[in-house]
Write a structure and sequence with these properties.
The protein is of the alpha+beta class. 18% of the residues lie in helices and 21% in strands.
Length: 169
């Protein structure tokens, strides 16, 4: 939204209740996105490193996380602006974030997550001593299970009326 805060560094797959490495996120701009509206920044090659972690939304933490990502051989990439209808696609393990929207306009977008047929529901245990952002991931995972995979339990095939097969060989 206009004036919206930072979106911490994260990997979408960590927040999904899925046991699959075959996940794609399609992000479609529904309005023009300028550099002041905080388009996403991606960490190139990060999807090859597995789970890397998350940052908090605080500028200092995000700066330090970005430095560590770059030092680990994952250069940062940002499109700077997108026109309405432009789309980005990234794997579920690609690290990405966005900074504060300093414009007076809302950054409108639609996100669609695709995953491989046959993926199973998974709800990994998060230890009580885990960092707050890791605990938050568990909350998001549970919410995604309830809203996007209604009625399913861990181990079930992740298929409901909410997520039809869109491509089959």
């Amino acid at each position: 939204s206009s004036g919206g805060g930072n979106t911490p560094w994260h990997q979408d797959s960590y927040f999904l209740p899925l046991e699959s490495s075959q996940v794609l996120t399609l992000w479609v701009a529904l309005s023009d996105v300028t550099s002041q509206m905080a388009p996403m920044t991606f960490a190139t090659k990060s999807h090859k490193k597995g789970y890397i972690g998350t940052s908090t939304p605080f500028d200092e933490d995000m700066d330090a996380f970005e430095h560590a990502i770059s030092a680990a051989g994952c250069p940062l990439m940002n499109y700077q602006s997108l026109a309405a209808g432009d789309a980005t696609v990234h794997t579920g393990w690609t690290l990405h974030s966005s900074r504060q929207n300093v414009s007076d306009r809302t950054r409108e977008a639609m996100v669609i997550v695709y995953y491989a047929e046959g993926a199973r529901v998974s709800m990994p245990h998060i230890p009580a001593e885990a960092l707050p952002q890791e605990q938050f991931a568990g909350v998001i995972r549970r919410n995604n299970l309830l809203t996007s995979l209604p009625g399913l339990q861990p181990g079930d095939i992740a298929a409901t009326h909410m997520n039809p097969i869109v491509y089959q060989r």
